[in-house]
Amino acid sequence: MTTFPKDFLWSASTAATQIEGGWNADGKGESIWDTLVHDGTGKIAHGENSDTSIDFYHRWREDVALMKQMGLKAYRFSISWSRVLPEGIGKVNEAGIRFYQDLCDELLKNGIQPLVTLYHWDLPTALYRQGGWKNPASPDWFAEYADVVSRALAGRVRYWLTFNEPQMFCGLGLVAGVHAPFEHNDDVAMMDITKHILLAHGRAVQVLRKNCPGAKVGMAPTGDCCLPKDDSPEEVEKARQKSLSEYPGYIMSNTWWADPVFLGQYPAWAKEKFGDLLYPMTAEEWTLVSQPLDFYAYNCYQGTVDIVPDPSKYDAYAYQGSPQTAAAWNITPKVLYYASKFWFERYHLPILITENGYSGLDCVMLDGKVHDPQRIDFLHRYLREVAHAIADGIPVIGYSVWSLFDNFEWAAGYSCRYGLIYVDYPTQQRIVKDSGWWYRDVIASDGGCL
Ligand code: NOJ
């Protein structure tokens, strides 16, 4: 029998671009995920876009009612920067501010704690046109945005996350060119970009501390957690070292981002690898970037496994025919145990799992319901590993399923579904999947039924 703390944050997650729609409603400005997708780059599956998505911008009241029925204790969502500041800086869009204030009020009225992410990848186009994260002014822009949002939501929001997955918006968007803004920057440019994002994080933390006394502040990184072949101390140590290395490439790695933010220093491997090419930092900048945070948030889906004796051959595809999701991600429940352990032991902060979930090819069945036993089994197995971590004394303070709804999965368009709630896109009808009702029962039993 599993014991989760009474105040455990049982949550589900979304992001503005993926659910809101209303891409130009009520004074919203454009983000790179509007402008560059409309430009017909051909980079999104089936030429899809997020113009309407699940129309949360207009349907949020009914959607909060569903959250209430599911018994969520918390709801993680992101703010659309260009909805509140259409040009990224300067003029504030009051309608955008009101939208997020009303949403928070409705959540609080229903006993649901808002967990707010400031940046989930949707850079305002006006700032992109000025160079985006390459521009040394970008930390100032982000501080201004954080100030506007946190003053508007102070007293309503306690939990804040600055950036979602810098690994991915940099790795996929600025190096591999498969996410907006579809760029291929070299190492020299990535040094500046990294530094600006780290400084922007630090500036936002300062602003949040000032405007929201008592706030709980963190960042939501991802990164590969490598799994040991077995639970022997030697294998666990090997997997830990690999997880803290530059694997699977420095921008995508854990420690490129987490060591500066949580330890106030470059990872040792980075000094060796880059030498003088590394972005320079003054003592004041290190202090800014590494201000104390309240938890280590982590987005976690799959672990990578050592498939051959050669430790450089870690791979997500464990063996021929290994179990996978619709997005071809490995099903490896133990990653939630080992990631919680490795990050806690390195950074000494409570762990908040900000994303974990299963992509499927769900559909409405003859009985009008959406049966998704694979997702239930996936969540069940992964949550047991959270329980395992807690039982081992690792303070995990919350868990957020990705995602509350089916939604726009970036370059993959609408091709796979992550939701606990099914969305029929042409009619916008919502149907809570079996997994959504299952999650309600898990929450109602404080995880006791797992
Ligand atoms: C991580 C991202 O934060 C989220 O936006 C995305 O949809 C999920 N992973 C699934 O790919």
UniProtKB/TrEMBL annotation:
Gene Ontology BP term (one): carbohydrate catabolic process
Keyword Transit peptide: no
Pfam families membership: Glyco_hydro_1 (PF00232)
Protein name: Beta-glucosidase
Entry keyword Hydrolase: yes
InterPro entries membership: GH, Glyco_hydro_1
Annotated family: Belongs to the glycosyl hydrolase 1 family.
UniProt keyword annotations, A-Z: Glycosidase, Hydrolase
GO cellular component: cytosol
One GO molecular-function entry: beta-glucosidase activity
PANTHER family from the UniProt entry: 6-PHOSPHO-BETA-GLUCOSIDASE ASCB-RELATED, GLYCOSYL HYDROLASE
Species the sequence originates in: Faecalibacterium gallinarum
